[in-house]
Write a structure and sequence with these properties.
Layout (H helix, E strand, L loop, with lengths): L1 E9 L3 H9 L4 H4 L3 E10 L2 E10 L2 E12 L3 E8 L2 E12 L10 E11 L2 H30 L3
Antiparallel strand pairs: 1-7, 2-3, 3-4, 4-5, 5-6, 6-7
Helix pairs in contact: 1-3
């Protein structure tokens, strides 16, 4: 099992960052490894979504069930795909007093994953390691595109 833990402090609100992370259909626009993304089902507490991983000649789809707490958290759990395990948590924490201070937040990602077989791990792990390690940075860049630099 591998684990990636990243956090960043931003001059964007927790709500703005939460919206970027939960707009799965926009992922192919700014995640270079994502060639398609769709919400398969809406639930009372989140969604089930499928994403296509296409990077360095590797192509695989995976599906996750994502429990969401508006503007605070997204919990990711594997439904199917080339992983033996994929789960993680995005946390969005408001910093300061939003009524007085300029918007700011802390975004944390804790992602754990493993692959279902040795040969699959050799093929996909280098690609997914890069994806996982650049995920937070990709959303920071997306925030600048959508909301403007701050």
């Amino acid at each position: 099992m591998k684990q990636v833990k990243k956090s960043v402090l931003l001059w964007y609100s927790a709500a703005e960052m939460y919206q970027l992370v939960t707009r799965f259909e926009d992922y192919p626009r700014f995640l270079p490894w994502c060639d398609r993304a769709e919400v398969l089902e809406h639930h009372e507490d989140g969604v089930t979504a499928r994403m296509g991983l296409a990077y360095a000649g590797v192509r695989h789809d995976f599906t996750t069930r994502n429990r969401q707490v508006a503007n605070e958290l997204v919990e990711i759990r594997l439904v199917d795909g080339p992983f033996s395990m994929l789960d993680g948590t995005w946390l969005f924490k408001t910093l300061g007093n939003p009524a007085v201070d300029r918007p700011a937040c802390k975004v944390e990602l804790d992602l754990r994953y493993g692959f279902s077989s040795g040969p699959l791990e050799k093929l996909i792990s280098p690609v997914f390691d890069r994806v996982a390690n650049t995920l937070v940075d990709s959303f920071v860049q997306r925030a600048e595109q959508v909301y403007g630099p701050r």
